[in-house]
Design a protein that fits this description.
With 470 residues, this protein is α/β, with parallel strands linked by helices. Helices cover 42% and strands 19% of the residues. Bound molecules: NADP nicotinamide-adenine-dinucleotide phosphate (NAP).
Length: 470
């Protein structure tokens, strides 16, 4: 895949880049390694000041950065501006809370025969971050802010379709004051990842991307015994039970499916509706989906912009056609537009069966699958009947059902009466083929820390230090 900016609204190639040579990559890794030695010796106050400076720059340059993101991957300008603001807030959050998250945790010293025992969180070194194009700023910031605060350095291999955003991020952290090399961008294709991850100076990797990329990176890291965090795809269920406010559920369902032009890992993709409210929900949902305005992502009135690539649009159209050919019903949308730009209309498909691709695969665009179920148990069975387990939504006002869904839905995030989203305050990640490890919150920050046990004894004769073998 070329490293290039191609505007999805027009299909026009705007800028191309030569991939970095092995020597350039090696020099960037060396800078990251040297910067690590420097960064880990700096105070949290200093790192926090740099991160706040990055946040201030994001706020100051918000509109320009948002325009660039829209040009590179097609999200609406309004959504892009909100993404920049969210990144600035997350940077400030980690600047404010890192001291608490990284503080030594005392243990019961007496119980372990020590005078003092505690857990200390320490950085491990340069971390490779392989990132996707869909939230080109946020996906990177939610790794970079906690990693840099912890004293790690970052090497970004961003998606080949967002090179300008990738370069902007390197520039952002450098200009904010972080040491040269603390956050470096590697303009390389995915074929370079193997060599980078095998470099002994690179201590770990985080990937946000597809299942295939996850398997590949996990394999390399496994051979090298390096830690990985994998944030992969999802096919999130959105369950609607009879007690739910159907109108509100249909409204939120529309946003949950079509946010980011339908290209979000935590977009609700399978709408599982109790038969008592199915017809009402289906009518309201299809009505709202077909009322969305599809068009120029720079136009403030646009709800849904183009898909990020022609290949992505072809893929979802093939998934819809496959379902229709096998007997599914299209309630709205489903036609591929002609003309420039990779647009696709918000689409609702029902009467799905297990042999259809849409049943099992992730659908990465504004296409919703609608399922009718007759009971709570059937709702949970269909919701969990997927290889993925990222987010899950349940709509019910019954407190007993709310509690049961929270336990029974097999996902890393369960949102009741709301759509899945990410917050710096809460851990984020998946189970099953959606990956492992967590980003955000203190848990995310500690993923790339050495969780070090420290045991201190008296050191005098008879004090019993190390009296028991392992
Ligand atoms: P992708 O093709 O896997 O690309 C993601 C990143 O991985 C890119 O930088 C890509 O580089 C690289 N890559 C691809 N194949 C690789 C391989 N075999 N070895 C090493 N690196 C590889 O995914 P995408 O299509 O851009 O993004 C959409 C996917 O990401 C969806 O499945 C979505 O659900 C998932 N996602 C998950 C989360 C989450 O938090 N769980 C968030 C957002 C997106 P190139 O661009 O150079 O190919």
């Amino acid at each position: 895949m070329p490293i290039a900016t191609v505007n999805p609204a027009t299909g026009e190639m705007l800028k191309t880049y030569d991939p970095m040579s092995d020597a350039q990559v090696d020099a960037a890794i060396e800078r990251a390694d040297l910067a690590f030695r420097q960064l880990r010796g700096t105070s949290l106050t200093q790192r926090g000041d740099w991160l706040r400076a990055a946040a201030d720059r994001l706020d100051a340059d918000r509109d320009e950065i948002a325009r660039l993101m829209t040009t590179e991957m097609g999200k609406t300008y309004a959504a892009a501006k909100a993404e920049v603001t969210k990144c600035a807030a997350a940077a400030r959050f980690y600047a404010a809370h890192a001291a608490r998250m990284l503080a030594d945790e005392p243990a019961d010293a007496r119980a372990v025969g020590a005078t003092r025992a505690f857990v200390r969180y320490q950085p491990i070194g340069p971390v490779l971050a392989v990132m996707p194009w869909n939230f080109p700023l946020w996906q990177v910031m939610r790794f970079a802010a906690p990693a840099l605060m912890a004293g790690n350095t970052g090497l970004l291999k961003h998606a080949s379709t967002v090179p300008q955003t990738a370069l902007l991020l390197e520039d952002l952290f450098r200009r904010a004051g972080f040491p040269e090399g603390a956050f470096g961008t590697l303009l390389v294709g995915s074929d370079a990842v193997d060599r980078i991850l095998r470099d002994p100076r690179v201590r770990a990797a985080t990937l946000t991307g597809s299942e295939g990329a996850g398997r590949s990176i996990a394999q390399i890291a496994g051979r090298e015994l390096k830690k990985t965090v994998l944030e992969l795809g999802g096919s999130d269920p959105f369950v609607v039970m009879p007690s739910a406010d159907v109108a509100t559920a249909a409204e939120v369902a529309t946003t949950a499916r079509c946010q980011n032009n339908g290209q979000s890992c935590i977009a609700a993709k399978r709408f599982i509706v109790h038969t008592d409210v199915f017809d009402d929900f289906a009518r309201k949902f299809a009505g709202r989906m077909s009322a969305l305005r599809v068009g120029d992502p720079m136009d403030e009135a646009t709800d849904v912009g183009p898909l990020a690539s022609e290949r992505g649009r072809d893929e979802i159209h093939e998934q819809v056609r496959d379902a229709v050919e096998r007997g599914a019903t299209v309630l709205c949308g489903g036609e591929k537009p002609t003309g420039p730009g990779w647009y696709y209309p918000p689409t609702v498909v029902t009467d799905l069966t297990p042999e259809m691709r849409m049943w099992a695969e992730e659908v990465f665009g504004p296409v919703a699958g609608l399922y009718r179920v007759a009971s709570y148990d059937e709702a949970v069975e269909v919701a969990n009947g997927t290889a993925f387990g990222l987010g899950a939504n349940a709509w019910t006002t019954d407190p007993d059902e709310q509690e049961r869904f929270a336990t029974d839905l097999d996902a890393g995030n369960v949102f009741v009466n709301g759509m899945t989203t990410s917050f710096p305050e809460l851990p984020f990640g998946g189970v099953k083929n959606s990956g492992y490890g967590r980003e955000l919150s203190a848990l995310g920050m500690r993923e790339f820390c050495n969780t070090k046990t420290v045991w201190v004894g008296e050191g005098t004769a008879g004090a019993g230090a190390g009296a028991h073998a392992e």
